[in-house]
């Protein structure tokens, strides 16, 4: 008699018990029971509804920042080239100044091209005006909206399992619908932060009192601490910005939550150079115009890694790390409209879907029993366990279940039954050759293993590609499909084999009923 694997039996029992604990909250009225490890599965917009936000990108603010950046670059080039100018005036998409020598016009054109090849200019006498054409403005606007959509997606759905609806609406608006979020306040808080991170040297030589009255040095500016209790003067020059971050994650340092960050090659080089030259000075870490911290540079930081400390909680450190990884919004987002929305599908449609799934499962179960007898009954039991595992993993990952996700689950149910059919048909072939029940079961599983593995691995590859390149409901379908394949393979190849071995050892049937 073939021995039953105690290890596989114990592991399967543990997995099943854990799965039951994670699935049970879905059958209670409370959203979460304190002594259960899991939470309810999130339902998508089509099944449950959620929050609806209409966001508007503040493109005018973005253009103000662009104009200021152009002015700073222009001043630097004019100073380096020793070109005289006066009456420099800055307004949105309009920069005017008088240049003193007409012979400098050729050099000025070259400077403008170096600052931004898309920047247009006009000359009237000794007055030069810099601006972006209507076409370039439209291009910049499209770029801002596209970047904002991707950053919003990263902030709202960093794991790709919530399946929000994020799309452009009109010229500057972005429609955001998040399933299950009945209160938009949390979304508004996360999206209300631009998360623009910059590093500046503190200007300790500046007179703070004069700076407060608006007389800060030309190359410096005043900023406040995060809670507004402290004011300091910092250099305007940005040493490193958030767009040069490679990664950011929340960690603990001396039992306090901090945000650890790593820079790309260019950022690491600039950071190392600045910290080497300015040892003993303070380095201000600025987030959205507020000072998070201003530590003293004791030693050069040459590895490209650093830590942002402050008055963080675990939640705020995790949130900041997520926003830094997602990147800064190119322009602030204003909430134009907010409301809670109901499910896209009516209750009748949802009930019809449930009925169809139950009826389909019953037909499959009856067919398996009629075709394979007691082995068909075992296949039905393992199919139920596979569904238990699937819903447990969905609860663990807090994935959002939508109709495409349900389709992925139904597909994996079909594949799980298909795996059992392959195994049973191979067992039947071995029995027809005169093999004993035990030997036929052993050979049946061994010969079907390669076929089942190949078919499921190819499907997993497709699911991986869908998750990597898809968005929204496509990602959700890929997640449920992957979970379903893994669970169905385990139950078909491990749990089915265990149950058949236990049945053979306990009841010693003369026939397998095939």
Automatic annotation (TrEMBL):
Residue ranges constituting the Protein translocase subunit SecDF P1 domain according to the UniProt record: 145-204
Protein's membrane topology: Multi-pass membrane protein
Major site of localization recorded for this protein: membrane
UniProt keyword Transmembrane, yes or no: yes
Entry keyword Transport: yes
Domain Protein export membrane protein SecD/SecF C-terminal intervals: 334-500
Keyword tags: Cell membrane, Membrane, Protein transport, Translocation, Transmembrane, Transmembrane helix, Transport
Reported function: Part of the Sec protein translocase complex. Interacts with the SecYEG preprotein conducting channel. SecDF uses the proton motive force (PMF) to complete protein translocation after the ATP-dependent function of SecA.
PANTHER family: PROTEIN TRANSLOCASE SUBUNIT SECD, PROTEIN-EXPORT MEMBRANE PROTEIN SEC
HAMAP family per record: SecD_B (MF_01463_B)
The protein, known as: Protein translocase subunit SecD
Organism: Candidatus Megaera venefica
Name of the gene: secD
């Amino acid at each position: 008699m073939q021995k039953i694997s105690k290890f596989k039996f114990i592991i399967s029992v543990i997995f099943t018990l854990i799965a039951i604990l994670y699935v049970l909250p879905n059958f209670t009225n409370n959203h979460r029971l304190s002594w259960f490890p899991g939470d309810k599965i999130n339902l998508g917009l089509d099944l449950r509804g959620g929050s609806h936000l209409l966001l508007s990108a503040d493109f005018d603010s973005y253009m103000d920042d662009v104009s200021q950046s152009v002015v700073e670059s222009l001043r630097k080039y004019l100073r380096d080239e020793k070109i005289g100018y006066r009456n420099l005036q800055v307004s949105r998409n309009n920069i005017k100044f008088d240049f003193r020598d007409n012979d400098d016009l050729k050099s000025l054109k070259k400077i403008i091209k170096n600052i931004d090849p898309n920047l247009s200019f006009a000359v009237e006498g000794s007055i030069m005006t810099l601006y972006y054409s209507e076409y370039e403005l439209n291009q910049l606007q499209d770029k801002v909206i596209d970047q904002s959509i991707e950053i919003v997606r990263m902030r709202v759905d960093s794991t790709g399992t919530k399946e929000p609806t994020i799309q452009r609406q009109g010229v500057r608006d972005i429609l955001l619908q998040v399933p299950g979020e009945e209160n938009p306040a949390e979304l508004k808080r996360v999206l209300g932060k631009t998360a623009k991170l910059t590093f500046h040297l503190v200007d300790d030589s500046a007179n703070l009192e004069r700076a407060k009255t608006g007389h800060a040095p030309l190359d410096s500016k005043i900023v406040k601490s995060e809670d507004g209790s402290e004011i300091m003067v910092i250099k305007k020059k940005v040493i490193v910005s958030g767009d040069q971050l490679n990664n950011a994650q929340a960690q603990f340092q001396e039992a306090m939550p901090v945000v650890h960050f790593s820079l790309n090659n260019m950022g690491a080089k600039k950071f190392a150079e600045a910290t080497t030259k300015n040892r003993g000075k303070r380095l201000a870490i600025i987030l959205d115009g507020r000072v998070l911290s201003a530590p003293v540079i004791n030693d050069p930081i040459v590895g490209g890694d650093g830590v942002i400390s402050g008055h963080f909680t675990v939640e705020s450190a995790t949130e900041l790390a997520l926003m830094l990884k997602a990147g800064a919004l190119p322009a602030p987002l204003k909430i134009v409209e907010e409301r809670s929305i109901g499910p896209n599908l009516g209750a009748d449609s949802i009930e019809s879907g449930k009925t169809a799934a139950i009826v389909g499962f019953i037909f499959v179960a009856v067919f398996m029993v009629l075709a394979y007898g007691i082995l068909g009954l075992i296949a039905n039991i393992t199919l139920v366990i596979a569904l238990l595992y699937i819903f447990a993993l969905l609860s663990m990952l807090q994935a959002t279940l939508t109709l495409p996700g349900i389709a992925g689950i139904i597909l994996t149910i079909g594949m799980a039954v298909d795996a059992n059919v392959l195994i049973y048909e191979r067992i039947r072939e071995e029995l027809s050759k005169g093999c004993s029940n035990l030997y036929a079961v052993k050979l049946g599983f061994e010969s079907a293993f390669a076929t089942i593995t190949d078919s499921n691995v190819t499907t997993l590859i497709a699911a991986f590609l869908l998750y990597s390149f898809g968005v929204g409901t496509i990602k959700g379908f890929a997640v449920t499909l992957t979970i379903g394949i893994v669970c169905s393979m385990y139950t078909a190849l491990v749990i089915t084999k265990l149950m058949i071995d236990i049945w053979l050892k306990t009841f010693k049937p003369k026939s397998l009923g095939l």
